[in-house]
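# nightly structure sweep
# worker-07 picked up a monomer target from the shared queue
# config: single-sequence mode, recycle default, output format = structure tokens
# input follows
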Amino acid sequence: MSHFSTIKVQIKNGEILNEVLTELGHNVERNTQVRGYRGNTTQADYVIRRPNRYDLGFRWNGESYDLVADFWGANIDQKEFVNSINQQYAHKTLLSTVQEQGLALEEQETMEDGTMRVVVGRWV
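# output follows
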């Protein structure tokens, strides 16, 4: 019996996802198996290898990436893990969009509660 669970996350750009995971200190493998309970596996596009053999994976569902893992043995705080990835992903996506639109990052500040304040502008 498989213990794999899927969590919907609003991540659509795999390259930015890979950058975020790497910057957060995770060793990421691409297009491989996520390991779980009793050697069960499932396929994912981006896989974080874990020493306890309970990996974390991100799999494309046709519209966005889902987080897939056997959380029973993963030994992580799911909410904290997803929130940290979502925050970094949103920040990187914003910076990418700012650059694509020809805007300039003028100011960036991390607030006490962990939120980020970003000021962008364009010279006209």
